[in-house]
ABC transporter ATP-binding protein (Ornithinibacillus salinisoli), 259 residues
Amino acid sequence: MSFLTLENVSHHYFSKKDFTKALDDISFSVKEGEFIALVGPSGCGKSTILSIVAGIVQQTSGNVLLNSEPIRRSELSIGYMLQQDYLFPWKTILDNVLLGPKIRNTATEEVKDKAIELLHEVGLSNVTNAYPDSLSGGMRQRVALVRTLITDPKVLLLDEPFSALDYQTKLKLEDLVYKLLKNYHKTAILVTHDIGEAISMSDRIFVMNANPGTIAKTFDVPIEVRDEMPFTSRRHPKYQNLFDKVWEELNKNDTTTPI
Ligand SMILES: Nc1ncnc2c1ncn2[C@@H]1O[C@H](COP(=O)(O)OP(=O)(O)OP(=O)(O)O)[C@@H](O)[C@H]1O
């Protein structure tokens, strides 16, 4: 059963003199609890899709559906995780995590306990009262993850959340995020330029073309790869096979990077 659907979605960005056709006739469905990845060249509209799903950008045409009905924004809670963590330097880690609930007036003792529990789950129990400046990039992204999860969003939009991290930290965080999202049965859409990350974390991959942004091809990640944690899944022969196919698809229409 489809949970979240984009139906013939197109989008133009208008300026005073010009316009950009960012997306052309995008259609796909995501099941509840499913993890999908969008990969494609720079400017193909990946972030625009996330913004449309989040309701930050209103598509020029087409529909966004929730459980096959036109979406009512109040019915879908969304969590966003970005490349930058946007932690407030003057607030402690715990207060950064509790910012959303405090704004909504829902920061009960129970929510505070949940925040502490989640910080423990991501290995940050010992820094709840520290300030962001004293944390590494990977630790800060773990705080950002907890800050996203504390509001219990139904859908997580992950816009290149690991791309600013060193490679080792990135691999570790991919495992951690994957484990948490599966444990909490979250639906997630990941935008990434990293084919390996897309294969090792998601159930399906949408490869996009640019100018305007379209979905060129959808790949199902084989069950044997999906059943493993992201790091170990990279050892599976079917991982490499899919990597080659996604790479080939990405390069079919890419005229920007001659090698
Ligand atoms: N606010 C905006 N105003 C005008 N044009 C925009 C705006 N945001 C994005 N665009 C244009 O829309 C197209 C899609 O942009 P988008 O950021 O969604 O692509 P992307 O695939 O996420 O890119 P990247 O991988 O570089 O982050 C691009 O041509 C971009 O320049």
